[in-house]
């Protein structure tokens, strides 16, 4: 680096990618990333929770390894217990994570910031104070892992999705709400980046076609691959499976 500021930081302003989709680069501090990596390993090795696993969809194993807090995700639905893991329940969503989710929305959707986003749907700013995520999906991408285009529509709430990335940079594909195909916008999610999608884009198709191995910052505690944590409100009260 031949200047005080890396080009990558200068060229990565906070942007509204699509209506209601805000990309906030380097939102997490290095300390916060370290903390989340530590928690990631704790969650993954805690015998009381859901072990990291590769869910099957339509008979195919996903390449991503998933664990979750709050609810278990399988077969496109949420349950409080995981039948395939002997009825184990996910660990609870900690309070600090709810605060983190609210801080993320406050930084992306509050009145102060929302005025910068001409395409942000009306009324989204109220969400910053009331967001109470009851599920965190914790994905680990090995260097070759990817995630196909899909909609997050198992939730019964129109609250935004808050997404945090740590480790290697990934190509994130933001699509449209109607089809899995183009038009879509590709953006790079680097370690520490926040992405929020809500309002008109809450149900957009999206995916991760690629992780860029070896791109994590040198001081990142994750040796390789990428962690992605999405915080959501399920809107589900019933402890039984929902569809
Ligand atoms: O890894 C990402 O950035 C996206 C994750 C995702 O789409 C999901 O968990 O539904």
Automatic annotation (TrEMBL):
<dbReference type="InterPro" id="IPR004574">
    <property type="entry name" value="Alkb"/>
</dbReference>
<dbReference type="GO" id="GO:0035513">
    <property type="term" value="P:oxidative RNA demethylation"/>
</dbReference>
<dbReference type="GO" id="GO:0035515">
    <property type="term" value="F:oxidative RNA demethylase activity"/>
</dbReference>
<keyword id="KW-0408">Iron</keyword>
<feature type="binding site">
    <location>
        <position position="152"/>
    </location>
    <ligand>
        <name>Fe cation</name>
    </ligand>
</feature>
<dbReference type="InterPro" id="IPR005123">
    <property type="entry name" value="Oxoglu/Fe-dep_dioxygenase_dom"/>
</dbReference>
<keyword id="KW-0479">Metal-binding</keyword>
<feature type="binding site">
    <location>
        <position position="150"/>
    </location>
    <ligand>
        <name>Fe cation</name>
    </ligand>
</feature>
<dbReference type="GO" id="GO:0005737">
    <property type="term" value="C:cytoplasm"/>
</dbReference>
<dbReference type="GO" id="GO:0035516">
    <property type="term" value="F:broad specificity oxidative DNA demethylase activity"/>
</dbReference>
<feature type="binding site">
    <location>
        <position position="206"/>
    </location>
    <ligand>
        <name>Fe cation</name>
    </ligand>
</feature>
<feature type="domain" description="Fe2OG dioxygenase">
    <location>
        <begin position="132"/>
        <end position="235"/>
    </location>
</feature>
<protein>
    <submittedName>
        <fullName>Alkylated DNA repair protein</fullName>
    </submittedName>
</protein>
<dbReference type="InterPro" id="IPR027450">
    <property type="entry name" value="AlkB-like"/>
</dbReference>
<dbReference type="Pfam" id="PF13532">
    <property type="entry name" value="2OG-FeII_Oxy_2"/>
</dbReference>
<keyword id="KW-0223">Dioxygenase</keyword>
<dbReference type="GO" id="GO:0008198">
    <property type="term" value="F:ferrous iron binding"/>
</dbReference>
<dbReference type="InterPro" id="IPR037151">
    <property type="entry name" value="AlkB-like_sf"/>
</dbReference>
<keyword id="KW-0560">Oxidoreductase</keyword>
């Amino acid at each position: 680096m031949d200047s005080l500021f890396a080009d990558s930081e200068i060229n990565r302003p906070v942007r509204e990618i699509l209506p209601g989709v805000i990309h906030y680069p380097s939102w997490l501090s290095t300390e916060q990333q370290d903390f989340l990596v530590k928690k990631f390993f704790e969650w993954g090795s805690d015998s009381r929770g859901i072990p990291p696993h590769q869910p099957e969809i339509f008979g195919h194993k996903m390449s991503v390894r998933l664990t979750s807090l709050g609810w278990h995700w399988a077969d496109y639905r949420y349950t409080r217990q995981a039948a395939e893991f002997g009825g184990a329940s996910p660990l609870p969503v900690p309070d600090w994570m709810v605060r983190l989710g609210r801080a993320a929305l406050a930084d992306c959707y509050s009145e102060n910031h929302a005025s910068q986003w001409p395409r942000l749907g009306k009324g989204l700013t109220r969400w910053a104070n009331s967001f109470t995520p009851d599920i965190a999906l914790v994905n680990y991408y090995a260097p070759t892992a990817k995630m196909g285009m899909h909609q997050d529509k198992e939730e019964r709430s129109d609250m935004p999705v808050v997404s945090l990335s740590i480790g290697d940079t990934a190509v994130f594909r933001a699509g449209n709400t109607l089809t899995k195909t183009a038009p879509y916008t590709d953006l790079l999610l680097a370690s520490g980046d926040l992405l929020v999608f809500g309002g008109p884009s809450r149900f957009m198709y999206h995916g991760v076609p690629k992780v860029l191995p070896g791109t994590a910052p040198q001081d990142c505690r994750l040796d390789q691959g990428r962690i992605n944590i999405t915080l959501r409100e399920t809107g589900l009260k019933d402890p039984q499976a929902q569809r």
